[in-house]
Amino acid sequence: MLHTGEAKPNDTPDFAAVRTDWDRAEAEALYALPFADLIFQAQHIHRGSFDPNHIETASLLSIKTGGCPEDCGYCSQSAHYDTGLKATRLMDRADVIAAARRAKNAGATRFCMGAAWRNPKGRDLDQVCEMVREVKDLGMETCVTLGMLTPHQAARLSDAGLDFYNHNVDTSPEFYGKIITTRTLQDRIDTLAHVRTAGIKVCCGGIVGMGERVEDRLGMLVLLANLPSHPESVPINLWNEVKGVPVSDTAERPDPIALVRLVAIARIMMPRSVVRLSAGRQYMTDELQALCFLAGANSIFIGDVLLTTKNSQRDRDAYLLSRLGITSLLV
Questions:
Q1: In this structure, how many other beta carbons lie within 10 angstroms of the beta carbon of residue 212?
Q2: Which of 51, 115, 147, 324 might form a disulfide with 64, Cβ 3.0–4.6 angstroms?
Q3: Could you tell me if 108 and 302 are in contact, meaning their C-beta atoms sit under 8 angstroms apart?
Q4: CATH architecture for residues 44-324
Q5: Which of 217, 261, 276, 281 is catalytic?
Q6: Residue 85 has what pLDDT?
C-alpha cells in the first residue's frame, strides 16, 4: 500500500505487503514525499520485519583480483583500463580460510568472496566450492560473486552449501548501456534466475554516483523490486573513486539526503530484504550513516578493504554503533 500524502501513526502502510508490480511513477511519488513522512513510512515498515536496533556485519575478500575481460566503466579490475592494479591468480585456499577466520574474530557473520571473472572455469569453480565448504565449517554464512553462471555451475555452488550469490544489476535499464557493453542486463538477470533455481539466496543491488540521474537510481530500485522474488540482500554502493576508468569523468557523489531517500525507498519497496550500506562508506559522515540506518539500512561491510577499494575502519564503526545503541558482533 503506497502512501503519498500525510503519514500518521494510525495511517501507515502494511509492512507485510510484498509486491513485485511497482512502477516508476510510484517510486517518484515516494521520492517526492516530505523527508519526515518518507522516513516515517520506511521506519514503520522496517520494524515490521527487522529489529531496528541490530545490523548484520559482513566481510568481503577479493580472492582473484584484476584482469577481468568485462568493460564495466566504474571498475578498477577491468582489463580494458589502466588503473595501476596488478592482476593476480586465484588465492590459495588456506589463505582464504585464514582471512575468513580473521573476519569472524573481527565480528563478521557473513564472509563474501569475489573473483574478477566474466564467468568461472571448471577448475576454478572446484576450488571456490572447497572454499565455500570450509568457510561454512567456521560457522559463517557464505557469499560469492564470480560473474555469470550457467545452471550447472549454480547447482554446484548450491551443493557446496553456498548461502548467497552476489550479482548486481548496477543501475537502471536506461543507463546500463552507458557503463557496460560486454555483458547485457539480461545476462545478469539470467544468472540471477539460475541462482534462484539452484536454491541459493540472492544478493543484488547497484551503484550510485556514476553520473546517472535520480530517475536512474529509482529505475534500479524498481527493477530490483519487480524481480520474481526480492533479493534477500540489497547492497547500495557509492561509487569508489578510481583513476583511469570512464566513470571518473562523469561521477558525481549523491547529495546525502538524496542517498537517505534512496535507502528509504529500497526499504519500502523491498520490506523483507536486508539493505546494505556497501562500498563508499568511507565517504559518509557518522550522521549520514545514522540517517541511513533510520531509513532502513541494516547491514554493513566491515574491514579496511572492499575488494580493491578502501572501507570504513572497524573502530569507527564500533564507536558509531555504540553511540546509536545498535547491536552487532562489533559491539
A1: 27
A2: 115
A3: yes
A4: Alpha-Beta Barrel (3.20)
A5: 276
A6: 83
Concerning whether 112 is annotated as a catalytic residue, the answer is: yes
In the block, cell 516515517 appears at 40
Give the separation between CA 254 and CA 90, rounded to whole angstroms: 35
pLDDT value at residue 162: 97
Pick the catalytic residue: 129, 156, 203, 261?
203
Give me the average pLDDT of each 10-residue run along the chain (331 residues): 40 66 96 98 96 92 91 89 87 94 89 93 94 96 96 97 97 96 95 97 96 96 97 94 87 92 98 94 93 96 60 77 85 50
Distance CA 322, CA 103 (A): 20
* 3-class SS of residue 306: strand
Active-site residue, 47 included: no
Report the C-alpha gap between 17 and 35 in whole angstroms: 22
Please name the residues in contact with 49: beta carbons below 8 A apart, sequence gap of 6 or more. 15, 271, 272
Clarify whether 19 is annotated catalytic.
no
278 within 8 A of 58, measured Cβ to Cβ: no
| 68 catalytic per annotation | yes
Is 203 in the active site?
Answer: yes
Distance of CA 11 to the CA centre of its chain: 31
Give how far Cα 291 sits from Cα of 7, 35, 38, 53, 91, Å.
18, 11, 12, 13, 38
